[in-house]
Known about the structure:
Layout: H1 5-21, H2 29-34, E1 47-53, H3 58-75, E2 78-84, H4 86-99, E3 105-109, H5 124-133, H6 139-145, E4 146-147, E5 150-151, E6 154-159, E7 162-166, H7 167-172, H8 182-194, H9 209-220, H10 237-250, H11 264-270, E8 276-279, H12 282-288, H13 294-299, E9 300-303, E10 318-324, H14 331-341, H15 344-353, E11 358-359, H16 378-381, H17 383-386, H18 398-405, H19 408-417, H20 423-437
Parallel strand pairs: 1-2, 1-3
Antiparallel strand pairs: 3-10, 4-5, 6-10, 6-11, 7-8, 7-9
Helix pairs in contact: 1-15, 3-15, 9-10, 18-20, 19-20
Organism: Aureimonas fodinaquatilis
Keywords: Periplasm, Signal, Transport
Main location: periplasm
Amino acid sequence: MSITRRKLLAGSAGLAAGLTLGGGKFGIGNAFAQVAEPTYTPEAGASLRVLRWVPFVPGEEEAFLANTRRFTEATGVEVRIDKESWEDVRPKAAVAANVGSGPDLVMSWFDDPQQYPDKLVDLTELGEYLGARDGGWYPGLEGYAKRDDKFIALPLCAIGNAICYRDSHMKAAGFSEFPNDTAGFLELCKALQANGTPAGFPHGKAVGDGNNYAHWLLWSHGGKMVDENGNVTINSPETLAAIAYAQELYKTFIPGTESWLDVNNNRAFLAGQVSLTANGVSMYYAATNDPAMAELAEDMRSVNLPIGPVGESVELHQTSTISVFSHTKFPEAAKAYLKFIYQNDAMNDWIEGASAYCCQPLRVYESNPVWTSNPIHESYSRASASLRPNGYAGPLGAASAGTMADYVLVDMFAEAVTGRSSPEDAIASAERRTARYYR
């Protein structure tokens, strides 16, 4: 199914009509009527700098830059886009916040804004307006962007994480269907290794893939870093069971995954070194855009991560928010920019350009035809609705953000599976490190 700008704009027009009439697909007309549309007038001579992560899907960046150019054409405000690697956005943003200079806006990860909420512009007025207009924010995404009921950032997207695998290799390993539970998944990985087509998941400090994998390992076995009150609970039988499972999986992996960053599993899969990993949909499009990988692309499938002993799907997805630093000289211009890129046609264009890589932050965009344009997109379409925040089961804040930024959970699994520490010692180390943040 091809997606055209006409179809997207027609969809946005239909949604707008529904909102105006007080109905619409999501029944949000009344909420919209109760929230006044804010107006922001850029300051005279305003210009902006935006720090964002390096894109993995060219179409996503193209759409983002196109929306930015349209904003400049409409307002005269020049916007400079600076790009940094996924791993470097976090420290660059933290430095900017703490020294009070640098970019005006940042596209950051997970609960990073919670590390410096007093250094950010209050976006509550705009956040409440957009939520009312567009069917509401997904709760998991919204939680990352709010502190004490105030928006310190705007939810931008969830980058869906799903198992990507070679269908022919799975069948050659003796499986007609992909197993949906962790026990069956381990057996599949053992069979793939025996056939010389192993799996591979990052145990290195990968902002996205490493954290996604480690949190799934823990949560699928019923473990959690902290309880609802923020008490450290990582030292538990459930965590020990998760490590035991991770050790068995690690035995089936290609060597070297303990040093993998976010690019390494992509490269290994596309080079034919592994036939199963977890990644965003970007890996599929990297294959489809290379004629030499046509056979591999045709053989690729995606599926959500298996369900463990906990009995339900529990996944962490890479989550990005966009916020405005309080040191900006042009806060009104910054808010005008945000309002512009969250217009229905602009957001639809961006979601389309991302080709299912960026799952929408607001429910109204569930109807974007990108989600039904290719069967491989289905596993990624549920990311915003299904994500569990990394601070589970406690509140998001400086402690959860610090623990994530310090790779406490990632390191715990890496130490145990590689044999650098016993499972018990790895857990004890994670407990001590976590307790430094949750005081």
